[in-house]
Amino acid sequence: MKKYFSIILFLLTILTNLIGQDTPTVNLKGVKPTTDSAKAKTGITRAVIIGISDYQNEKIPDLQYADKDALAFKDYLQSQAGGNLPETNIKLLTNENATMGKMAMALEWLMEVSEKGDKAIIYFSGHGDVEKKTAMQHGFLLTHDSPANVYMAGAFPIFYLQSIIATLSGKAVQTTMITDACRAGKLAGNSANGTQVTNNALAQQFANEVKILSCQPNEFSVEGEQWGQGRGCFSYHLINGLKGLADKNGDAIVSLKEIERYLEDKVAEEVAPQQQNPFTIGNKTAILAKVDATVLASLKAEQEFNTPQFAAISSKGATSIEKLATKHKVWINQFLQHLEKKELLQPKKACAEYFYNKIIMTPELQRFHTQMTRGYAAALIDEGQQYINQMLAGDGQLIDAFAYTRSKNVDLFPMYLNKAARLLTEKHYLYKQLKQKAYFFQGVALKNQLLREKKTNRKAKKLVKAAFKAYQKALALDSTAAYVHLALAKAYGDQGDFTKSINHIDKAIYYAPQWALAKATKGIILTQQGKTEEALSAFENALQKDSSQVYIYQWLAKTNRELGNLKGAKKWNQLQINQIEHSKTSKEYPSYYNGLLAIAYSEIGAYEKAMPLFHQAIKESKQKDAVLLQAQAVNYYWLKDYTTAKMAIQKALNIVENAPSLTLLAMIDLELAEYKGVKKAVKKALKKNNQFALAYMVKGDLYAKQEKWKATEQYYLKAYGLAPKNKQYWFKLINFYEAQQVSEAKLYDFYQNVAAKNEGNQALIKTFALTFQRLGYKEKAKKLLRKAFLSN
């Protein structure tokens, strides 16, 4: 017997009672059935049934039998015992078909077609969770394409379900909710008791509805092979109970009270010693099903041999188009083919949009309009969701500054989502979320325009302003959207407004506490501020959340290097290399890993080995990845090929100018003795970031070349002051003071300053001791060597 920490979240069901000519109906409000079945009003029963065992994101643990439970429930509804529900009245979504978009559209269908006196069935079998336990977060249903941690960005909120049920209830549509709410598994909200909180929310959130839940909020639901050759224990006994095994008083009717008692007895007994106690909420006299004597007799016979059987699962039917005119059949088939190929808005006359408009403008095809509209909206929603999922999974190159390198359609996403919003109209419960995501992608697209080609300052400022405006509009629609806060944090960081940047990144982390990329981005922003030690802590925290993200290893290596810990930098680079090399055999090995591998090899000194990887990665990025070009320039710099290094860094600067790339240009020009270029590049670098220590050091190097010693010392001290733990800055000053043969007192004062800021660094003491010895200050040299020896 396997346990799963998850939720078969809503089985919103109308389990019908047989009234009249063997046609089952449901009395959800506890109304007594009429004694004259011929006069009983029978509404139409419809069902949306969702079951997800296979999740797209590998960090959401798969289930075994959630999809089988959904199929079995559908089969029950279509059987004589369940009311012979016709195929056309059921929307079945399992596994890869149960996406956020398709689920939303199936529920939209249910709300739209249900009328007064009808019955609605919504069945969801899968995971449920919360990211963190707060008053605002009541839980989420995890669809096939949900992200693993930032649920608000792509899972199905329970408050959407509330809106759906309220709409159905407002139309006097009878509704029952059945949830198998807590299957076990490692989810983002485990630390906040996510599945239990979600189950509790389901139990409390919907008033005046009949509800059947698989277990108490503090329990877990069980599934295993011993039930129906692989089912959930709750689902298996629920269907058997409705078929008549729960009819304790033998009146051929199964009430809510009877199904509760039956499930309590059977489930609790069979999952022992684990605790699982199903319960119900609502009018206990509500009739759920009327028992068919033949079906019950057969079931009892099967139970004697412990071999329960279920009717074969039939596939979902599709609306026939055979009788349509030839051209109309072509339009519909072309529309569906373009949906399948994800050709939604382009090319202009060979995409889903083109044929959708033809269908909608044709009166003869009116009966297909709603069906085509829902399918189109689902496809538009799902495309944008895939991008967000990649970003939330931690792909650093899918957030703003690198998005264009592998997401060529990102500019289309605002159009996709706005189109979906228009199709659904402002009254739809998803409208606000779709508009919010559309604004987010609009901001990303605008930022990407800055990266594709160099803009004039005026044009660049205009694009940045427009991007900020788009992000702010997105946030106004959903202040809890972590990915929007992250985008704003990066945007403010790029502008040097670190107060606002940190404010937004902290909000991103608050709303998505398990999102490793958010924590790593805080490290990047702290690095921009010169807060290197705090940045190191942020990166280490990010790695604890997700050790598979290769970017974090690179950032850890870079931060250690900036702190002067070259040994630590080499360790993290090597770990990154190991991670990437290990994944090379995987079918999902992304091409951009070649660039990361090139950078890592370059940083451990394997310059020749890095070179072909740089060429390959830069070619794949179509020479548009500024980070790769800058790293390649560094590689050429260390190979002392300064001319080629300058060509590479100039290509990077044509894409984007920042303090590191401008400083590298200055370093190259210094080696080429182009001193005017050095001065100009350093000035621009410090204008971009006046806290960038390396720029001050290069400026000091320039004055050293010109033998302007006072200015040299001034800028070396400035660099050291910004990064006192980075060996290259205090070591540069030691060398400078030794060359200048400064006094023993001045050198010792400097030593004390450096030692105080680098406590415990024994190599530092030895370095200063040797400097004192070379300058002839033997007593101080002996004193420091003795101190180093005693410390060891």
Write up this protein.
The structure is a single chain. Among the domains are: 303 residues, Rossmann fold (3-Layer(aba) Sandwich), CATH 3.40.50.1460; 132 residues, no CATH class. Helix content is 56%, strand content 8%. The strands form five sheets. Strands 2, 5, 6, 7, 11, 12 and 16 form a seven-stranded mixed sheet that branches. The protein is elongated.
Q: What is the structural class?
A: alpha+beta
CATH class of the domain at 2-304, named Alpha Beta
Number of strands: 17
Looking at CATH, which topology of the domain at 2-304 would you report? Rossmann fold
Distance between the amino and carboxyl termini: 57 Å
Please count the helical segments: 31
Q: Which characteristics define this entry?
A:
alpha+beta; Rossmann fold; seven-stranded mixed β-sheet; 17 strands; elongated; disordered N terminus
Summarize this, please?
Helix content is about 55%, strand content about 10%.
